[in-house]
Specification:
CATH superfamily: DnaA, N-terminal domain
Radius of gyration: 17 Å
Number of helices: 4
Helix content: 40-55%
Strand content: 15-25%
CATH topology: GMP Synthetase, Chain A, domain 3
CATH class: Alpha Beta
Distance between the termini: 53 Å
Structural class: alpha/beta
């Protein structure tokens, strides 16, 4: 017997935690943070505010993920245009990473 009394109890706890994540919309919060952590991978050469890069390199900031819409702030019109051009490939790469459709579109501000 394991810590939770066996596999069935562990599965029940996993199901409970999954329900809590959905009810409180924690899935999108966790996904947003994972997107930020892997921002260079998804956004390529764009400098992204990820917490690990110097602020002076920031070209875009990942603001939120809500109802499948990833909102990013981009101060530079040139980078904004680059994001618009690469929108489809960025969305596809993020969704491939998660193996599900987490992001439906990117809103650029």
């Amino acid at each position: 017997m394991g810590l939770f009394g066996g596999h069935e109890s562990a599965r029940e706890i996993g199901d409970l935690l999954g329900g809590i994540k959905k009810e409180f919309k924690l899935e999108e919060i966790v996904a947003k943070e994972r997107i930020k952590e892997n921002a260079t991978k998804f956004f390529g050469i764009l400098g992204v505010e990820s917490g690990t890069e110097p602020h002076s390199r920031k070209q875009i900031e990942i603001k939120q993920l809500q109802s499948g819409v990833l909102t990013v702030i981009c101060e530079s019109s040139a980078w904004r245009e680059e994001l618009k051009l690469r929108h489809g490939s960025i969305v596809a790469e993020i969704n491939n990473y998660f193996n599900e459709k987490i992001v439906q579109r990117i809103e650029i501000r």
